[in-house]
Amino acid sequence: xxxxxxxxxxxxxxxxxxxxxYLVDEDVLGELNLFRSLGHAPRAMQAYMRYGTSLWYAGxxxxxxxxxxxxxxxxxxxxxxxxxxxxxxxxxxxxxxxEIESIARGDDEPFPYREQAIMRYAGAVATRSVxxxxxxxxxxxxxxxxxxxxxxxxxxxLMTAYILDAxxxxxxxxxxxxxxxx
Length: 182
Fold this sequence. Notes:
Layout: H1 33-38, H2 42-56, H3 63-76, H4 80-92, H5 97-105, H6 113-126, H7 132-141, H8 144-167
């Protein structure tokens, strides 16, 4: 359930130990509420960020395909913060509002085969329902390295969704964009 108040105070860049302040620099990712929450454990936040960055380049996914996977995961586990963040990031990666609305409905039919396979696999990872045909379709559409990277990326975003939920991290910028943004 979405709340607009955090369970832990949101730390500012200045409140972080000096050696970790660069992590929330405007040139990196800025002071997103996720990191302002994780800032209570700065060393772990640094490792989390490094791991997430390394997964960004695991396998042969385009930015659009990664965003399709992340949006699919956010929808599958009803993670409002992730959905809210990645609606805009998805649009920057070339995903239309109509396509985002399709993802919100759980409809992957408008997408080409490769994207469907990626989205179905990411959704199955998120819901712990990977079966051989879904796995095999993802490997056929991409390759084994990409599917392993997609599995790890999916796990990272699932972990992030659980962290956001447990700490009740409010979306950045105020109001939740909604499950069917217009």
